[in-house]
Amino acid sequence: MARREQIYVRVGISLIIGICFYSITDLAATITWVTGYIAFQLAEYVLFRPITAVTPLTPLKQIAGLAVMTTSNIGFASYGLLESSHGGTAGLVCACLLWSGAILNGAIVSGESKTVLACSIVPPLLHFFSVPYFVIENGGTLGSGLAIVLGGMLNGVGAISIWATSRRLMDNAAREREISRLALLDAESGLPSRHAVLSRVAELRKVSGDEIVVVAAIAIDRFVHLRGAIGHALMIELVIGLADRLAKIYPDAPFARLSNGVLGLAFTARDIDEAKSVTCRLQRAMTEPVQLRDNKVDVSVTIGLSVPDDAIASPAEVSILDRAMIAVDQARSARQSVALFDGRAYGSPGSNLSLMSEMLRAFDNGQMSVHYQPKISLRSNHIVGVEALVRWAHPERGALRPDLFVRMAEETGHIGALTEWVLRRALDDQRTLHRAGHDLCMSVNWSALVINDVQITDMALKLVEKAAGDVCLEITETAIIGNPDLARQTLDRLRAAGIKISIDDYGAGLSSLAYLKNIPADELKIDRAFVMNMANDPVDAVLVRSAVSLAHSLGLRSVAEGVENKGTLELLYAMGCDLAQGYGITMPMPLGELMTYLGRRQRKAG
Ligand code: C2E
Ligand code: CA
Ligand code: CA
Prior knowledge:
Layout lengths: L2 H22 L2 H21 L1 H4 L6 H27 L3 H21 L4 H24 L4 H42 L10 H14 L4 E9 L2 H8 L1 H18 L5 E5 L2 E8 L2 H15 L3 E3 L2 E3 L3 E6 L13 H14 L4 E3 L2 H4 L2 H14 L5 E10 L5 E12 L3 E3 L1 H10 L3 H21 L5 E5 L8 H12 L5 E6 L1 H4 L2 H13 L3 E7 L6 H6 L4 E4 L1 H4 L6 H16 L3 E5 L4 H10 L3 E3 L9 H15 L1
Parallel strand pairs: 6-7, 9-11, 11-12, 12-13, 13-14, 14-15, 15-16
Antiparallel strand pairs: 1-3, 1-6, 2-3, 4-5, 8-9, 8-16, 9-10
Helix pairs in contact: 1-2, 1-7, 2-5, 4-5, 4-6, 5-6, 5-7, 6-7, 9-10, 16-17
This protein binds ligand C2E and calcium ion (2 copies).
One calcium ion (CA) binds next to strand 13.
């Protein structure tokens, strides 16, 4: 019952009782009674306004209300009984007035306690039923007695209905509170949800002053594989364990579970540099092994950062949390462990939607091209092949990273068209190179999504028939996982036609030996994440060394990509690595430049 309706009920009941009252008394007494009674009801309503709100009264207010009401009840009752026993009208007025106490009681208890309700209603009720006795005893009519009883009953019904309404309101309020509490919690883990952290981010921004609010999305690497290995229940424990760690390191910073394997943390920092150093600390803490029941599990995380300012470069509907999550993807595709959201590279969902149709047009309008990055033999120092890397010079967005549109092409079913276009162009260019006297193995990236596409395989086989030299397809290990039997068949078909297979990004994915043994391949390409720093990082160096010897023991040639300096080149040579590729040797370049470069090298050698 709304507050306004409550007033109507109170006034309505007062008037009905007034009419009953009129039947036993005169008009003047009735007007006095009705006016007094309504005034009493209204005063009571105003006085106990909070009762009609959904918040329960504090215990102190309940006790105070109960004390006032009980005293007035007893006072009215005693006086009423005394008066009516002498046949006086005033006694009846008091008796009727007593019932407003019941309404008050009903409201005060507010559904908190049925006992209190009973205690507050029963005494006046008993008193009320005794009124007719006194009326009759003192010569009143039966009708007078019944009219008073009826008035009292109405008053009682009003009291109970107000009590019930208050209770319902409070139940609803409690339910709403519970629903909002649950909305702020992740059902599976009981950790705060993204809504919780979003509202805290808004609060933080209000009080952050000169500092910036930073959101870090902390994503567990290889989540799906890890979950496959340890099971869903343990995975949840792992997430909770990491969240506990976060809460210990930054007790006041709001954190949440943003999605299955991603935790979010909001904090303030003086500037981006400070935010980055906080992130490095965070990353170190997160990569400590987690104790799960009897086992220790090693985890690594990739962290994406977003600050409110980077929203300028992206649409407002992408929240700061989403931007941090996108930054995780950006970090992963750039092979970094931490990245700040790059709005320019991300573009906007609207423009990304049209990107694919633009891509199809870009094949014909000269915006799309292929650059070639040489692979050199560490033993002979000769360039033995090149990797074809697609490039898109977008008229508005500048040079687009292949990671962005290759992934999008995969997601939107356009990867077949992209793959075919690159392969055709690469084979054309290989013929041009051949005519110029450069016989190079042409490596083309082969997305995991096209490996099981029979039409694309047929297309590749047909095109490669006319190739001017060796062709190598670079696939990632994950390409095999979805449907290992079919992938194997496809690879066997490709290899039977003389196409070489390279396992790309080795070390970045699952790197399961069982899979590796089952992939019919010719080459193992060690991921650049390990190669780039191996000259300074002994752990990376050990990993590269073991990858080289693993390749050899499986009968594969080893290729290190991401060779950025001479020191790395020397180390790789000492390790017996076969081929190397990287900015330290040559950057990827267009065909024209490649021809010049190859010619220059040839002249030098000759
Ligand atoms: P990827 O196959 O691992 O290609 C090697 C990437 O490493 C290239 O980035 C290359 O420019 C970069 N790189 C080469 N040397 C160095 C170095 O010394 N240091 C560093 N930090 N990076 C180096 P790019 O061209 O941006 O390509 C990124 C990814 O996009 C490729 O990774 C590949 O997965 C995909 N991609 C590129 N072209 C194609 C394509 O034609 N088809 C498909 N399906 N994917 C492609
Ligand atoms: Ca590659
Ligand atoms: Ca690679």
